[in-house]
Structures are given as C-alpha cells and as structure tokens.
Design brief:
Residues 3-194 form the Lon N-terminal domain. This is LON peptidase substrate-binding domain-containing protein. Pfam families: LON_substr_bdg (PF02190). By secondary structure, the chain is of the alpha+beta class. The chain is 38% helix and 25% strand. The chain has 2 domains: 2-107, Archaeosine Trna-guanine Transglycosylase, Chain: A, domain 4 (Roll); 121-201. It has 6 helices and 6 strands; from the N terminus they run ββαββββααααα. Strands 1-3-4-5-6 form a 5-stranded mixed beta barrel. Strand 5 (79-95) and strand 6 (103-107) form a beta hairpin. The longest helix is centred in the C-terminal third of the chain and has 23 residues, at 179-201. It is globular.
C-alpha cells in the first residue's frame, strides 16, 4: 500500500481506534486534500530524536494507517479530522512523488491486527487500578464508570494514546505484538510515571 506519511510525536493510532487531529501546516493541509481526493488514508508515524544533520526528519519504521472518517474544513483552510485505525505497518521504502509531504510504500502484513482475545480478569483489573492511581497522581478528572464500560482493547489502546508517556514508550506500546503484552507494558509504564511524578513533587524548589 502507498500512503502519505504524517510524522507527529506522541500521536499513535491503533487498529479500531480513533485519533482526532487539527491540521494547520500548509503541507499537511495539502496532504489532507489529496487524501480525501484519493483513497482517504493517512499513515501516522512518530519522529525519532531530532538529528540536526539529517537531510529529512528521521522517523520510526512502524506506524498505523488511518482512514479519514471525520472532516471539517475551517474558513482559513485548516482542517479538523478524525482517523479510524485500520492496519499497523512497517515502511518498505519512502517514495518521491513531488509533494510537500512524504509518502511511502507500506507493508500491511507486518502485524497480525485481527481482533485480539480478551484480557484475563486479573490483568484487566490491574490496568484499571493503575490507570486510577495514575489519574489521581496527575490530578485528572476521569469518568471511571465510562472507562469501566470500555472493552479490553479500547481501554488499553485509549490509555496508551492519551497518557503522557514519551515518544519511545508510546512507540513500544504501538509495536507490542499482542494485547496482553501491551497491557503488561502499559501497567509498568503507568507505575513508573506515577512514581516519577511523586518523586518530582518532592523535589525542592530552587529560588
């Protein structure tokens, strides 16, 4: 499959999940217009650490294809869009199509993205428990009743998308082969972030 690439740090997409995006850069406005006129797909990827000497911004080779299922064009040409994830991919090669945005050929068979088996009850409970603890540590207001109604895949992937993990952690979650493996990793990351938050709160203020 060939699709435009949209590198965006911290923005990961999973199959059967959705990602709202505000598109304001001119090159990515053009990307959205071209995608709408074409197959309606955009390939979400994350940039790697900045390399000032690189000719182009280095990106991770694994991402997820999103189909545009919501589109609002604003008066000034910006877009609000919603992507619905279809397949994770591995980049085969980038393709020069003389567009201001990057394009690539993608291997959609690199991951088994069929609907996963549900988590075990204990693992599901652990994910919810650590999510509550992290939410409390970060001072977030969350509708936990609504969270509890999410199915296992939606719960794990939604937390992976919105939690303030760094780029490498989010990429590791994206590339996890199985849902239960992603859930285990997610629990560890939430615990680490919560403990780090508590440590930061105890640091003295330098005047």
């Amino acid at each position: 499959m060939r699709a435009p690439l949209f590198p965006l740090a911290g923005a990961i997409l999973f199959p059967r999940a959705q990602l709202p995006l505000h598109i304001f850069e001119p090159r990515y406005r053009e990307m959205v217009r071209d995608a709408v006129d074409g197959g309606g797909h955009i390939a979400m990827v994350q940039p790697r650490a900045i390399d000032d000497g690189a000719r182009v911004e280095p990106i991770y080779p694994v991402g997820c294809v999103g189909e545009i299922v919501g589109l609002e064009e604003l008066e000034d040409g910006r877009f609000n869009i919603i992507l619905n994830g279809s397949h994770r991919f591995r980049i085969v090669s980038e393709v020069d199509l003389d567009t201001p945005y990057r394009n690539a050929d993608l291997d959609l068979a690199a991951f088994d993205d069929r609907e996963p088996d549900p988590l075990g009850l204990a693992q599901r409970a652990e994910v919810e428990r650590e999510a509550r603890r992290l939410g409390d540590a970060l001072g977030l207001t969350v509708d936990w009743a609504a969270v509890g109604r999410l199915d296992d895949e939606m719960l794990v992937n939604a937390i992976a998308q919105v939690a303030p993990f760094d780029v490498s952690a989010k990429q590791a979650l994206l590339e996890a082969e199985t849902l239960d493996g992603r859930a285990d990793m997610l629990v560890q990351l939430m615990q680490f972030l919560r403990l780090s938050q508590g440590t930061a709160d105890l640091q003295p203020t330098i005047q």
